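Exercise 7 asks you to align residues with tokens for two separate proteins.
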Amino acid sequence: MGSGGGRFDPEWIRAHAGHLDVLRLRLGRIGETVAQFEQDQAAFGRLVGWILTGLGERHVRHGELIAYVAETLGLFVSGLHRVADGRQRLSELIGVPEDGAEPEPEPQSRPAAAIIADVLETVEMREWVEPQLETVPVAEFVLPVPDGFALLRATGLDCALDTIDALRRMLDDLTGMPEVVAKQAGDWGAMAAELQQIGDELERCLDEDFGGVDRADVRAYLAMMANNVEALRGLSAISTAMTMVTRAAGDLVLLTRDIVRGVIGDLVARVIVWSTDPVVVPLPVLAARLGSVVATAWRVDAYLKALVNSVANLSRSIDG
């Protein structure tokens, strides 16, 4: 424990500095994880990856904030060792006025966790998803088809992709790397848990190491460190939100890709059936078939536009 005067028990101060240093090292390892994230968003496919620049920017910003908290803890570790050695007073380390006056409290801003809760609600309510993609799975594929037609869908689509370069490129632009997206979401989730735990341990460390000490400089130090606790919890909340955003974006890309593949496969199967029809096709029937081709192209374009707009809506929830 500390004494009532200007000095504390040196070993007690060094022990507290050691606790902070352990937490600092854990933050450093988290920072290394952030640095490994994809920066160009190729994992989401070329069609929409460019929209999700907010994810890449968030990676960078997140790493900077984690590094800032880690650096702050490092500065306190060094300073506390000077206090333990008698080379500096705690009041000097934290900038408490000589007269012992309490520093003015900083204005309270809205907690980061509350702000991130709004982002999570936005993602979960799916209002960012365009109506075409919200209802299309039922509208497009609710009716069962014969096994033979389903086989034509699959084999016909594969054949079309092998022979039509533009079609293959379009679906490649929608493919992305689902396994990378899933890993990113998992990394964000693990980071959220670790940051929350570090914040909790920092708060517990402060309570246990300074329990029962009632001094102006200690109160000022605890208030200053409480900001770091809140910062860590805010970073944890952001990581949780990024888990949801990453997973939601990846899932919507895969859903759209499956829908487009299904629509194109359906058209290819119909064309195969039409081509094997031995009966001379009347002009109205031929016109209707040509109309089906045009309608399919329009539907595919509508789904792609809906994906781009949906991802743009989602990206706005994390911009800045």
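Second protein for Exercise 7:
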Amino acid sequence: MTFRLGLTGSIGMGKSTTAAMFADEGCPVWDADAAVHRLYSQGGAAVALMERAFPDVVREGVVCREALKQIIRRDPGALHKIEAIVHPLVAQDRQVFIDAQTAPITVLDIPLLFETGAERYLDATVVVSTTPEEQQARVMARGTMDAGQLKAIIQKQLPDAEKRTRADYVIETDSLDHARSQVRDVLGYIKRTRLHA
């Protein structure tokens, strides 16, 4: 059975870049956000269920994320209903992916890993981290949100310090070379100490 390594980190910490580094080292990578995208797309398993719960959110056979955001803004309680539909489907998608793997280590990219309790299903967790200044600079450079929106997102996520405490491994994403060497160190350590010979 493949070793399940959960990867997480707050917005702007370099999680996607680090996930690509794990893939470069030969690890299959499952992406929770991509799974939700599949579930919301035409023919996705969440479409009919979401339409039943929120008739206005499905447009041309696709769940409209903007419409969902508006519903949540109007009714914060709607988020629990959405999660009750989506989380079991995401877990199912994740399990199908894991079951199909033959590689020694599989990486599961889960933005809200600790927030959703997903660590219960994993063999180890790694968090990516950088300074608050670097985090803000990266997100602002994307040009998709302002400082107020970023602050609101950060406040909804588990604090970086707590993620670092709870994770088995921490990867500092202060530079690409340093991050890549830490990815290799983590994989080497797991192979030496956690994989059955």
